Fold:
Amino acid sequence: MPVISQHSETLALHAGSYRRDPATNSVAVPIYQTTSYQFDSTAHASKLFALQELGNIYTRIMNPTTQVLEERLSAIEGGAAALGVSSGSSAVALAIQNVASSGDNIVASPHLYGGTYNLFTNTLRQMGIEVRFADPANPENFADLSDEKTRAYFGETLPNPRLVPFPIAEVAEIGRTRAIPLIVDNTAAPLTCRPFDHGAAVVVHSLTKYIGGHGTSIGGIIIDGGNFDWTAKPAQQPHFNQPDGSYHGAVWGTLVPEALGAPIAYIIRARVVLLRDLGASLSPANAFQLIQGLETLPLRFREHQANAAKVTSFLEDHDAVSRVIYPSLFGGAEKALADKYLAKGHGALVGLELIGGIDAGRAFIDALKLIYHVANIGDARSLAIHPASTTHSQLSAADQLAAGVTPGYVRLSVGIEHSDDIIADISQALDTASAISLKTVA
Ligand code: PLP
Structure:
């Protein structure tokens, strides 16, 4: 009997159909390191291939270890079903390819992880999918850029470096009247925001970050809210309303609810068409590692957020810092977004601007002893990066500013070490950066 709870702490350990391994009674989730599954009979195999019965066929498409991860995360997000994939990047790409083909477009916020921005401006474009960028400060911009070829809207819950939450409910609502689903990347705000509660249709995560939590494994997930009517305006969603020649003419929007009793056409199509053809599967060994991370995510993320709040307070009072970027410090419309979408904490990414500009930024990073200098976020360890000299160094000064990256900007991904130690390391590095600022002023 699956455990039902409202609490993510319980769901992270118990949600879904797995209770113990049916073959051995193992409590820990086994790594089912297999490519294939023996069919009971030809009739059984035919039913599985025809989707009349759900079951294991081949690990490119499904795996029992990965299934535990999918069921638990889907429950935590309040979704209906999920698909584990090989990385967060493949989750984003497949989430869009599942609705859009050459000649179609999507409308996205420009405030995105750099890899996603590249996918949208280069690779999807090369595939014939146009990405139109809408400033989410006015959600109506999404409506203005939509037409009969718009297949999805896209935004990140908590994009860095600005850390201003995306207006999920406002954009989702605009989309629903047009039969356009909102896809939300919730990587930076697990647990604190549940995009389905605000009307999103699809949620993606890079599992590589907080959910894995230990910097060991790359993975991604796509979660279907089961809350979107893919057949409301058939011409707007051709992937779900036209016969699919690659699956003996299946019309996904109508076949799936009938066959499976749940409105999860989106995730079924992603699994049996896109994973079948593109093969970006999550390995069972990585799924196992990511389950270990997920089991303690609620505990860790509480600590991440508490430490981030303490680091923010410390930075606010520091002479070498001209500005601290953290959602609890916002005013006006940005505060309203933070209050609405980050009800259970403001995340664990903190931005700071050093008075001494680019030289101080470099000096700060070079002086860190405890905090790692890496491009990643969401590790249990505290991490830092100076975008102007690394991730954003190829952009012009104007483009850096447009992306929210000033010369002295440093991004911290606050970890779960003792807050005193994190702050002590930041403090000593700020002393070094201050010396640079003083020299710059002199
Ligand atoms: N989405 C966001 C918000 C990210 O920060 C990242 C990675 O940094 C990704 C997606 C891509 O995830 P992955 O590195 O697992 O491919």
